[in-house]
UniProtKB/TrEMBL annotation:
This is Aldose 1-epimerase. It comes from Caballeronia choica. The lineage of its organism: Bacteria, Pseudomonadati, Pseudomonadota, Betaproteobacteria, Burkholderiales. It comes from the Bacteria. GO terms for molecular function: carbohydrate binding; isomerase activity. InterPro entries: Aldose_1/G6P_1-epimerase, Gal_mutarotase_sf_dom, GH-type_carb-bd. GO terms for biological process: carbohydrate metabolic process.
Amino acid sequence: MSAALPRPADDGSLIELRHGARRVLIAPHVGGAIAAFFDAGERGDVHWLRPASREALAACDPLGMASFPLLPYCNRIRDARFVFDDETVDLAGDGNAFDHALHGHAWRRPWRVGATTRSSVELHFSHVPSAAPAHHWPFRYEATQRIELSSAALTVTMSARNLSDRRMPFGMGHHPYYPRTRTTRIHTRVAAMWHSTPDLLPTHLGPHVCIGQLASSEGMLADAFDLDNNFAGWSRRATIAWPDEQRSVTLCAEAPFDHMVLYAPADEPSLLCVEPVTNTVDWINLDGGGGGGCVLGPGESIRASFAWMPLR
């Protein structure tokens, strides 16, 4: 393990899950995030997700975590504004520092720790609308993450329930970062890519040369393209491989995680994200649909799981 990453003995706010040599560090106070997922070893720890640094944990920075939850929507909402059931929802004052509201609000607020075992934990989140920053989402809801470690996988089950007396638009996902090297490859199958404007808002769904490379037997090099795009028609299975290290991790997801985000920027070669999400960018403002997401009636719930399966 990186010397910069503290352990629960050093930081009482962290929760450690164990199964054999496998470890997961959870930071409930940092947006209910996963801080690290690794195999401990005498010759050093092998990380399956990019571990949080001591500095990121001290700053409570979700963007510096290994993975963090996205809800009540994923990605961006154009100009932080949308119309739903003939009412305008303005999220511009919710404390989000981005021009277009990004990733909801649950990643910027602490989660409550529930039932815990040696290899599992439940994290709970409650949202009640108010005038306070990060509470401008006008629908009341509750959410849970169950994070469970086994010999085969790290499984995250996300669920949410609409506690409002009216319909609520909703989307969810997770935002994992992976170690990225010059030989890192991604293998997955998608039907089409959402092309976007310079500020990453969708323009149209169409082909891209990366789609064939992703589906090839050897996969696509993470350095092959400059990508920060959403993909539709995802097979709900993606493998991130480090062939020079003879290891890989496979992400498998249930419906409705039918969309995938691939973030592999050319100007930041240390960053790589392959994200399971239920909605694409600005899905709630897209004409013609196809962007995923759902509408939960009063009292209705949604629940789905995804898992990372390491292979050495």
